[in-house]
Specification:
Layout lengths: L2 E5 L4 E8 L8 E8 L4 H15 L9 E5 L5 H18 L3 E4 L1 H13 L7 E9 L2 E8 L10 E4 H7 L5 E4 L3 H8 L4 E4 L7 H5 L34
Parallel strand pairs: 1-4, 4-5, 6-9, 9-10
Antiparallel strand pairs: 1-2, 2-3, 6-7, 7-8
Length: 233
């Protein structure tokens, strides 16, 4: 199975292609990763084209698409969802998806290795406005212990589980400092989702009937409904 995966949820655009290896060998993953605060929509398709070219394949060779479903910044997340919908419509390929925080959990375990006596892993991302996106996982990063949530800093403190915890992500230090707990260790404050971590498990995911973003928060910009001038005929 040849899988194209990408993420645009936070401060980067990440694209990965997984190429099937010879039986008994590890599949080859080709990845592109560019940190950016904005411009996700403009960079995504060129990065996809570049990654496919580096893998020496075209869209015709891809058999499955994978995307992060959020949470994340509204504009970036929307760019990824729009792209995967468009590609699926054009190619007829199935789409699978995963929480951006679940992808980060897998990335944390990949970077940190075995977490020792840690009982759980908390992925906490700064959502601004004194809020965070938070999701809890088993220490191996494989099993979700609840859905992703948007929480205030105070709520996040109360959501931290008992026992030894490793907290990762840009919001981890804020929450752990407020909690004042010695059994919570902060790691990887700059952690972001990597498409390579998504594409590595995408073959195991069930195709989505509908690709729906998980914003967790309404967009800052809203359609004006009051004092709107009537359209001219």
């Amino acid at each position: 199975m040849t899988i194209l995966a990408f993420d645009t949820c936070f401060g980067a655009v990440s694209v990965a292609v997984c190429l099937p290896g010879i039986v008994g060998t590890t599949p080859l993953i080709v990845e592109a990763f560019e940190p950016m605060a904005k411009g996700h929509a403009e960079r995504l398709l060129p990065m996809i084209a570049g990654t496919l070219a580096e893998a020496d394949i075209g869209y015709v060779d891809v058999t499955r698409l994978a995307v992060t479903l959020g949470p994340g910044g509204f504009t970036g997340l929307r760019a990824g969802i729009a792209a995967v919908r468009g590609l699926a419509l054009a190619t007829g390929l199935p789409v699978v998806g995963m929480s951006s925080l679940a992808v980060m959990a897998r990335g944390a375990v990949r970077e940190l290795g075995h977490l020792g006596t840690t009982q759980s892993l908390a992925v906490i991302v700064d959502a601004r406005r004194d809020e965070v996106y938070l999701q809890l996982f088993t220490a191996d990063g494989q099993t979700e212990l609840g859905a992703a949530q948007l929480a205030t800093l105070e709520q996040a403190v109360n959501l931290l589980p008992a026992g030894d915890v490793v907290a990762v992500g840009s919001g981890a230090a804020f929450v752990v400092a407020m909690a004042g707990r010695n059994d919570v260790v902060v790691e990887l404050s700059n952690l972001l989702p990597r498409a390579s971590d998504l594409v590595a498990v995408a073959a195991q995911l069930q195709p989505l009937m509908q690709v729906t973003p998980n914003y967790l928060r309404a967009a800052d910009a809203k359609v004006q409904t009051a004092n709107v001038l009537p359209r001219m005929a």
